[in-house]
Amino acid sequence: MITYALRRIAMIIPLIIMVSFGVYALVLMIPGDPAITIAGENATEEQIQATRERLGLTDSFFVQYWNWISGAVRGDLGQSLFSSQTVTGAILDRFPVTLALTAAAVTVALLIAVPAGIIAALHRGRWPDRAVTLLTSIGISMPSFWLGILLVMVLALATPIFPAVGYTPLSESVLGWAHNLVLPAFTLGLAVCAEITRQLRGSLSDVLHQDYIRTARAAGLRGRIVVVKHGMKNAAVPVVTVLGFQVGFLLGGSVVVERVFGIPGLGDLAIRAVLERDIPMIQGIVVVSAAIVMLVNLVVDLSYGYLNPKVRQS
Amino acid sequence: MTAMSVAPGTEAPVLEVTDLRVQFATDRGWATVVDGVSFSVGRAETVGVVGESGSGKTVTSLAVLGLLPSPPARVVGGSIRLGDTELLGLRRRELEEIRGDEVAMIFQEPMTSLNPAFPVGDQIAEVFRRHRRCSRSRARARAVEMLGKVGIPDAARRARAYPHEFSGGMRQRAMIALAMCCDPRVLLADEPTTALDGTIQAQILDLMRSMRDEFDTAIVFVTHDLGVVADICDRAVVMYAGQVVEKAPIDDLYYHPRHPYTEALLGALPQLDGGTEVLATIPGTAPTPGALPAGCRFHPRCAHARPECAHPTESAADGVALRWLSDSVASRCVRVDELRLRGAR
Ligand SMILES: Nc1ncnc2c1ncn2[C@@H]1O[C@H](COP(=O)(O)OP(=O)(O)O)[C@@H](O)[C@H]1O
Ligand code: SF4
Ligand SMILES: [Mg+2]
User: Fold this and answer.
1) Ligand 2 center to B268 CA (angstroms)
2) Domains of chain B: which residue ranges?
3) Number of domains in chain A
């Protein structure tokens, strides 16, 4: 298991370098010259050229990339073009918010999806399964911003229970923080929950027809243990895959939901950076998001090793 | 052959199935898949249940454990007695206590019958602990002990291995260890050697014999292979299209079959003729539960069929009745008294 883990980790490093290169190149292709914007409206051609040089934009592409990646390795992703913040600083500011939102959303999703998926799998083809399938189809096809607005209207505006928008830092008030996270967490959680329920229902009902489940029943193991222990460990692989995909996606910042609820997370930072053509900021966010996705994939891969003993050897 | 097998009723049977009827829901209503099956097994005895694929053998054994999928299956009649306990109608919790403890089962597919996600020893220990409510270390010791008993070398180390690290024969040994770990009174073995090749098959049969003798287990040995039945069983029950068509002690069945279907099965056994193996088959195919022939269900394929075979007898409304010819042999053939059937050669 340990060699398996080390091998997986070693595989990630070249991947990150490749991704960072691609990201750097692609972002530079965004039309528009940031030097013109930065130098100001009435800048002369010389001033613009000076700005270009100061920003390092006149160097060759490879020199620019080298400077950037060698900084990035030391945790320095450069300076925002439009604010006094460093890119690293801005990301570190925003990431905990997105992380908290993701954790809350995944908790909501799992609390609903696991029981719902099990019930649907146990009653495949009968009414509980049909109900779950219908609800998940609705959940999957419903855009999250629409669900978010709906929740705001029903739960925040119609009743004074939850705040419609806003964010309270954890350091300020734990209760306020949690309070602000409830609606966005549900909005994101319900979408994730639908995917996970559907996946769990499918894989668990397949697993429950396997011979080893019949063996466990024939040996007198209790129904609940058969399903939860013997069934779920085998059914978990595709579920973990989907979950990892969703978590990676959420950790990159859920632009729409963060906007709807006014949450200062990574998604919100990203959208600002794109609108302002804050190139170092965009590069930083994309590379960090990519690294996060790869990290999540690593965790998912490691969980395969735990869930499926055969994987460890290959 | 053990003394118990001479005649039914010399010792109270451990498991007694009487007139079992099982139906499955189909597009065209309920199909009777097991139709009035009766048999019993005594302590340390092995009874074979033989018949072609689809004759209802697996359904019968799953019914004993209460493991039929419902829907689509339902048990519509009969009785399954384990000692003094009637198993039909027990609640699920009560059945769960009996399964694996007093009645255990092993299956045809050794490659898929163990859970790929847990070490083999853990799977055995879990069953032992569930029924004996002992400590983890006691259960683990029992798992290793059982793996040793079924002939797995270096059992303490192999107990930590996963099923995919075992060969097919080793997995079937591990399945037997799992089934026998609580010293069950009855072992249901559903085609336990069918998926294995010749030498491994013989080893597993040897193992089952020695386990039966050590634990005094009553074995119900389900198979489509009369050759295997002859190897291990004391008595056999031959099934065709959901019914028992012949019951007899194994030597009688083998050398003096009393039903043309048994004769046909014996004729289809591989023969060593001058060094080449000749594989014969019974002509035609078995009827499906939804479309059973009237009268004797075997008559469309029977070499001895006469027009009267297609008509129900007065003693059985929907076919031919099973008739006792002696206190240990029964046959469901209207012409049984006139026929001289060929036994194994
Ligand atoms: N899950 C099921 N659904 C519908 N019919 C079934 C099912 N299992 C078994 N049957 C029916 O029961 C009959 C007997 O099956 P089975 O007991 O498995 O035969 P055997 O074990 O003798 O090969 C088959 O002909 C099949 O039509
Ligand atoms: S009753 Fe007739 S058809 Fe049926 S087995 Fe006997 S001889 Fe053959
Ligand atoms: Mg079968």
Assistant:
1) 18
2) 111-183
3) 2
Q: Rounded mean pLDDT of A261-280?
A: 88
Q: What is the CA radius of gyration of chain B?
A: 21
Would the CB of B309 count as within 6 Å of ligand 2? yes
Average pLDDT across chain B, whole number: 90
Amino acid B9: pLDDT: 42
In a domain, A22, yes or no: yes
Task: Give DSSP secondary structure letters for A151-183.
Answer: HIIIIIISSSSS-SS----TTT-HHHHHHHHHH
- A128 in the same domain as A266: yes
Boundary residue ending a domain (A42, A73, A104): A73
A84 inside domain: no
Q: What mean pLDDT is predicted for residues A176-194?
A: 86
Same domain, A65 and A152: no
In a domain, A244, yes or no: yes
C-beta of B181 in contact with ligand 1 (< 6 A):
no
User: Residue A57: which domain range?
Assistant: 11-73
Residue A56 alpha carbon to ligand 2 centre in Å: 98
Percentage of residues in chain A having pLDDT higher than 70: 99
Contact A220 B118 (CB under 8 A): no
Nearest CA to ligand 1 atom 5: B24
B177 in contact with ligand 2, CB cutoff 6 A = no
**Same domain? A66 vs A212:** no
Q: For the sheet containing B15-26, what is the strand order?
A: B29-41, B15-26, B73-82, B85-86
Question: pLDDT at residue A58 above 70?
Answer: yes
Report how far residue B151's alpha carbon sits from residue A239's, in angstroms, rounded to the nearest whole number.
38
Q: Say which of A218, A233, A234 has its CB closest to residue B99.
A: A218
For residue A154, the model assigns a pLDDT of 79
Structure tokens at B203: 């080893």
ipTM for the whole complex: 0.89
Split at pLDDT 50, 70, 90, the class of A24 is confident
What is the Cα–Cα distance from B268 to B255, expressed in whole angstroms? Answer: 14
Q: B328 in helix, strand or coil?
A: coil
SS3 content of chain B, % helix, strand, coil (to 5): 30, 25, 45
Of A219, A225, A233, the CB nearest to B104: A219
Question: Are B112 and A230 in contact (CB < 8 Å)?
Answer: no
For chain B, count helices (H), then strands (E): 10, 14
Residue of A nearest to B100 (CA): A219
Ligand 2: does its nearest atom lie under 6 Å from the Cβ of B128?
no
Q: pTM (2 decimals)? A: 0.85
| Closest Cα in chain A, distance from residue B170 (Å) | 16
Q: What local confidence, expressed as pLDDT, does residue B3 receive?
A: 45
| A1 domain residue, yes or no | no
User: Across the interface, which of A212, A222, A223 has its CB nearest the CB of B115?
Assistant: A212
CATH, residue A230: 1.10.3720.10
